[in-house]
Amino acid sequence: xxxxxxxxxxxxxxxxxxxxxxxxxxxxxxxxxxxxxxxxxxxxxxxxxxxxxxxxxxxxxxxxxxxxxxxxxxxxxxxxxxxxxxxxxxxxxxxxxxxxxxxxxxxxxxxxxxxxxxxxxxxxxxxxxxxxxxxxxxxxxxxxxxxxxxxxxxxxxxxxxxxxxxxxxxxxxxxxxxxxxxxxxx
Length: 186
Fold this sequence. Notes:
The protein is of the alpha/beta class. The protein has a single domain (2-182), classed as Peptidyl-tRNA hydrolase (Rossmann fold, 3-Layer(aba) Sandwich), CATH 3.40.50.1470. Helix content is 36%, strand content 24%. It contains six helices and seven strands, in the order E-H-E-E-E-H-E-E-H-E-H-H-H. The protein has helices at residues 21-32, 68-79, 112-121, 142-146, 152-173, 177-182; strands spanning 2-6, 36-41, 44-51, 54-61, 86-92, 100-104, 126-131. Strands 2-3-4-1-5-7-6 form a seven-stranded mixed sheet. A hairpin with a 2-residue loop joins strand 2 (36-41) and strand 3 (44-51). The longest helix is centred in the last third of the chain and has 22 residues, at 152-173. The radius of gyration is 15 Å and the shape is globular. 37% of the residues are buried.
């Protein structure tokens, strides 16, 4: 069993913001594989389904980003999911917009959602880093930047990115990371 967690902030004010890239990808995966909406549990929206033969619990924490770890911790403990079967989908300002990187463990680079998760379950989970880049205006605070919406042009690119990742997410679940890294995402 795998736990796939899209990070973001809930509510209309946060839709299509850079910080919600994880939610956007999670929505696409849930739709692509016809996951069933299970309801609200673990301070999250919970979806269930399968990707190939892998049973999936798909989580969208409703705790706001800074407390995402609470939801992840509760779901892991309830379903007894091994940390190596946890995949976190999150925005990353240290990657240019549109770049995608898979990673296991490591630092959180100041990402408050990852900090919260690290504090409660440790750092050795799988991560899919979704590049949003840094603001062109150097005076704009990172917090304000990630809470701003994607431009219309960026939204079109995000749609393509999430469709391509969703169609190939099985490669990560099956530990075919080299194959995943070779596909064209953008």
